[in-house]
Write a structure and sequence with these properties.
It contains 3 helices and 6 strands; from the N terminus they run βαββββααβ. By secondary structure, it is α+β, with helices and mostly antiparallel strands. It has one domain: Alpha-Beta Plaits (2-Layer Sandwich). It has a 4-stranded antiparallel beta sheet with strand order 2-5-1-6. A two-stranded antiparallel sheet has the order 3-4.
Length: about 110
Amino acid sequence: MEYMLLITNDPDAEPYDPQFDNIGEWVDDLEKKGIRGHGDRLRPPQDAKIVRIRRGRLEVTDGPFTETKEWIAGYDVLDCDSMDQAVEIASRHPMARFGRIEVRAIWPFE
């Protein structure tokens, strides 16, 4: 089953320390095991566009619509046997320490 890790910054997390940023090792390990499908960083919220249709009209605004201190910084898609395995893998991601990670099962349309 596929799981998405939403990598989120968190102002309450411990400060970033490059000494503990092992993202390269984390990615290499999962790719060697065939668990990680793909993933990447995302541009910051100020570079985003919010798209919605209201009363039949397209509305596009710059950046986040609401002020928030937390935002999605990246993502990874994993192919795991269980939610427990996905959580265990997420716990080894450096942003589990410096931010937070939301783990969600992908729910395909059928």
